[in-house]
Structures are given as structure tokens and as C-alpha cells.
Amino acid sequence: MAIDYSSFIELGDLTDKNIGQLKLLNTSVLPVSYDDKFYQKILAAPFITKLAFYNDVLVGAVSCRVDPPVNAGEPQTLYIMTFCVLAAYRKLGIGKKLLEFVETTCAKNNYCKVTLHVQVNSDAIDFYKKYDFTIESTIQNYYRNIEPTDCYLMAKLIPVDPSAVTTTTTATNPAANNNNKNKK
């Protein structure tokens, strides 16, 4: 019988008081480093960042930005800029809870799709596929200073209400202007 860890997991908001913890988490888990400008931008748009706490310890986080529609009149999409869970806390439902936050954010705002770049890494790819993400394309030499340099663009379609499509430009979202800044 599987143990239910959900009662130990809480999602919290990003604040100026805990952003240092997020920096440390991302540095510990992710192969890409982010500068202070990146963290200032996500702090300016905290509605698309969530921190995951396990017994009050920060163990995971997701940071997203809103991308504009490809064509006028289409809904916006949500792009996952960073997504991480400390290795010791994986397979406890933390990643699932963070993805549920992302999908709920999409549903509330009528974003039609969630996208992210995933380094060629079978564990990460399997995780996203488990939650119905698909590989849209392979991008060779996406990363400059990490191996492997290739990545996959993965996506998940989110049902939207066509009568409530959000077509606001990304100028209202400071984090949206961080396009591909994670390439180092």
C-alpha cells in the first residue's frame, strides 16, 4: 500500500523573504544558473511561481511566464521556465502538485497550452509524459555550457473556454520578457 504524503506538502507564494531559498534550490538542482535579474523578474510576477514545502522545508518550485499567442485572437500559453524538486523528495507527489498548480493557473486564465524545454534526460521526460506532456520538437545545441546540449520542447494542451480567451500582450507580464535567458 502506497503512503500518502500529500498532507506533508504545502504550496506557498514567492516573496522577497524566501527568494534566497529559491535561488539556493535552483542552484542545487538545475544544471542552468540564473542571474539576479531573472529572480527580480519572477518576484515581480509571483502569481506564476509556487514553492513546494515538505514539513516546512523548501523542496521544490515552479516558475512560469505567460507567452503571447502565436496568432491574433488565440489564447496565450504558459511557459515553465524552471521546475525542480530535490532528489530526496521526488516520487512523493510534490512534482504532481506543482504541475496541478500550473494547470489550474492555465484553466483560470484560459491559457491553451503549457510548454517547457527539457534537457535530454530520461527521468524528466518520463515524468512529464506521465502527466500527458508530449515532445513537440528536438532542439540541438540549445544549451551552451552544459552537457548534453540538446533539449526537447515539450507541451501539454489545456482545454480553454473560447468565449473567454485572454489575448493580453506580454508587456503586462515582466517575466515574459525573459525569453531564453536560461541558455548559458
TrEMBL record:
Keywords: Acyltransferase, Transferase. Pfam families: Acetyltransf_1. It comes from Cavenderia fasciculata (Slime mold). This is GCN5-related N-acetyltransferase. The gene is nat13. InterPro entries: Acyl_CoA_acyltransferase, GNAT_dom, N-term/lysine_N-AcTrnsfr. One of its GO terms (molecular function) is acyltransferase activity, transferring groups other than amino-acyl groups. Residues 9-159 form the N-acetyltransferase domain. Coiled coil: none annotated. Signal peptide: none annotated. CDD domains: NAT_SF (cd04301). One of its GO terms (biological process) is mitotic sister chromatid cohesion.
